[in-house]
Design brief:
By secondary structure, this protein is mainly beta. 5% of the residues lie in helices and 56% in strands.
């Protein structure tokens, strides 16, 4: 399983980049509430994915997360917001049906409008 970024380069050219090859899903109430809290770090090729039933406003916080992350809010696999969240104090909010949390710097090449999806 991996998280893939597809970026349109014009004239029907599409580039594909793997953002993470170690993917974990936050799919229970407890795993969603805990997120990355209390972890000292995550591997460079790691992603934590939150999937929801439909688009809605979703918040992220960095309380008890001692390292920075890149967060992507997606609707139908399209990036609607990207934000670097600072350790301990970072906050983010946007509409999404999927949120992807990555190590800081992993999403440097990702921009709103790009496509990011999880593939098997």
């Amino acid at each position: 399983m991996r998280v893939v970024h597809n970026e349109a380069k014009g004239d029907d050219e599409l580039t594909s980049q793997t953002l993470a090859s170690t993917v974990e899903f936050a799919d229970t109430f407890l795993s969603r509430a805990r997120g990355l809290m209390f972890r000292r770090s995550v591997p460079d090729d790691y992603a934590l994915v939150f999937q929801f039933d439909g688009p809605g406003t979703h918040d992220l916080h960095m309380v008890f997360v001692p390292f920075a992350i890149d967060a992507l809010w997606l609707v139908d696999d399209e990036v609607v917001q990207k934000k670097r969240l600072r350790p301990w104090v970072g906050l983010g909010r946007a509409t999404a049906d999927t949120i992807v949390e990555l190590p800081a710097g992993a999403a440097d090449d990702v921009e709103p409008g790009d496509v990011v999806h999880v593939e098997e």
